[in-house]
Amino acid sequence: MNRFIPPKRTIMTPGPVEADPRVLQALSNPIIGQFDPVFTDLMNQTMEAVRRLFLTDNQWAFPIDGTSRSGMEAVMCSLIEPGDKVLVPIFGRFGYLLTEIAERCGASVHVIEKPWGEVFDPQEVTDEIKRLNPKITAIVHGETSTGCLQPLKDIGRFCRSTDRLFIVDAVATVGGVELRMDDWYIDAIAGGTQKCISGPSGSSPISYNSRAEKVMQERKQVEKGIRSEKEDAADHSRRIQSNYLDLTQLQDYWSPRRLNHHTEATSMLYALYESLRVIEEEGLEARISRHLSHEKAIAAGIKAMGLTIYNDHSWKLPVVTCVTVPDHVDEAGVRRMMLEEFGVEIASSFGPLQGKIWRIGAMGYSARKENVYHVLFALEAALLAHGFEANRGEAVQTALKMYTGVTASA
Amino acid sequence: MNRFIPPKRTIMTPGPVEADPRVLQALSNPIIGQFDPVFTDLMNQTMEAVRRLFLTDNQWAFPIDGTSRSGMEAVMCSLIEPGDKVLVPIFGRFGYLLTEIAERCGASVHVIEKPWGEVFDPQEVTDEIKRLNPKITAIVHGETSTGCLQPLKDIGRFCRSTDRLFIVDAVATVGGVELRMDDWYIDAIAGGTQKCISGPSGSSPISYNSRAEKVMQERKQVEKGIRSEKEDAADHSRRIQSNYLDLTQLQDYWSPRRLNHHTEATSMLYALYESLRVIEEEGLEARISRHLSHEKAIAAGIKAMGLTIYNDHSWKLPVVTCVTVPDHVDEAGVRRMMLEEFGVEIASSFGPLQGKIWRIGAMGYSARKENVYHVLFALEAALLAHGFEANRGEAVQTALKMYTGVTASA
């Protein structure tokens, strides 16, 4: 086996993106034991930081040791019992993922769908909730497959006022786009570390409130082999179907009880903690503004090049800019050249949009002006080489002007 | 938030143990995209190395992005359908975990139990299989809670000859104790990275053969949003209950089809790859011998100190030495002093053995003579400070003699 030395890439996809160098350094810290007081203190501090990340006062806020979808599955399988009615408003691929998870939990899943590229007027969702009367409404906040951002607050308020649960997939938005768990009445949420948080993939910060906890706790089963006699005698017929993703067990592990569950992923926790430190040093609001400013530069550059933005609406997801692939251009060929010749990675999309759009992310540490220049010049060069007459030099000059105020001499 | 700087620990527990410094360095490599050809090549090379680790020719051998129990749950929830009869022979805490997971998959779980500290004569298990006729027999190979090692080959041979499935939890043994997946007729297996593999917790290498795959494939459901029309029309009533841990989906992601599932945990894969490289450079057989030699030094040192080994049988798990806590000694106090004063971590156990034994691991990178000296002298010092008259100096001198051949002058 040869030593693995990764190439240096400029990653401008909707994730995984470049991890902050401080996070990469933190990953190489030596291991300490999971019940070492230094480690349990780190767990506690991380919980506090996850609360601040989601802007929540919830007691429960910690990472799941798995990639983003493990966080959503933990939330959903801990809340959903077979037969529960779940509404999933879908406006892209990751909405389907929520139906997929809910179905596997035995839910009776109902969907409403928007054409890809659009989002829901909150009223459409609340009307459907009224009609259907679901126990849970589950929705994606930032849909990376289409580059769209769903407004949540009015849906959350309605769910709360009618005592229903509202759960949100915030994988693509947390740490980069405005997201207010408590203000928006979100009962349970899951994020991902490999996008705007700028850590490696493999950890999913989640949070849930006491309303969600109450539902889960009715189904609690402490693990055999470590449970007490009293717990042994409890009724386990409604138990949560996963052991690994059972939030009632995980919260015992993350609480002073420290009831052994899995062995916390040490290095990934180091990474998450440092990611959150970086975010707090920058400040959440400043960070969101930074993402917006790079989005503007990318969008202006793309237009200056002579291309069209696919998701150019008020509901555009700020951290993903989708670009319509011009007719007769080899979509995959352009991306391949960008990667192989220029070391720049962008993405295409899924389903109906596969091969139709390019998706340019600007997330976390990847949202830097050097990267914006790099992706614009590489895309222009690859387009020219593929026979598309992009406006030469215009994209980078436009971005340069936005960043520096300097105009190219005529 | 303060910068987190972990203390330097000597970790002599049954895991998580010290990661190899080369693995820690690999963790800090920059991120690359999950469909970057350099990354998919790394995935392929890792699969090959996982095959060699388990000594198997199976096509499917890859890590689950979660801690060890996520690997066992992936195997079990992909194989078990509601109502399936599953036999779990239990000889410690982690046997209970297997029942817990199987029950949550809807299995009809049957157990046979040995008193903690013993293992099964394979005949006892095969007799029960004959009587019960289970679809699956699931067992732990190395039970860290009791420090016992279960012989597997005769059980595996019987299951194969009668066309039943045999699945094994090899979390504690893989990479440190003899384990031969194919020769022992194991159909599916899961390991952990934070023990003898000497990586961080958070990744679980698994493998399964074509017999296991056939059972899973009957239940296959490609994810909505990325499945084809033909796949859409398939019968999904028997689908696997987890999306995240669905091996039929994961194998499509790990195959040339590269069907998108989760975003592979980049840094953890870097770590696993480097761990496996370290193992191959040492050689599996040499590595197993190394673990045995350190076990001998620890055991001899413990006895020389005047203590009793709890699991001193032919079925002792070589990588975990359990020590009976002497009467009237403050079990937790001794461990606390070892950690706080000497930076050395050992463990107690669970259930009936909690507070009754200390468990001293010697796994992976932690299985080094410096660590053996360190744990022996720290345990001796803490025992003396807690009023137990250990034989002063004898433990380290005994180990020193074994490592160097030099006897302390009288």
From TrEMBL, chains A, B:
GO terms for molecular function: alanine-glyoxylate transaminase activity; L-serine-pyruvate transaminase activity. PANTHER family: ALANINE--GLYOXYLATE AMINOTRANSFERASE, AMINOTRANSFERASE CLASS V. InterPro entries: Aminotrans_V_dom (IPR000192), PyrdxlP-dep_Trfase (IPR015424), PyrdxlP-dep_Trfase_major (IPR015421), PyrdxlP-dep_Trfase_small (IPR015422), SP_NH2Trfase/AEP_transaminase (IPR024169). Substrate binds at R359. Pfam families: Aminotran_5 (PF00266). Residues 39-348 form the Aminotransferase class V domain. Keywords: Aminotransferase, Pyridoxal phosphate, Transferase. It comes from the Bacteria. Its cofactor is pyridoxal 5'-phosphate. This is Alanine--glyoxylate aminotransferase family protein. Belongs to the class-V pyridoxal-phosphate-dependent aminotransferase family. The modification N6-(pyridoxal phosphate)lysine is found at K195. GO terms for biological process: glycine biosynthetic process, by transamination of glyoxylate.
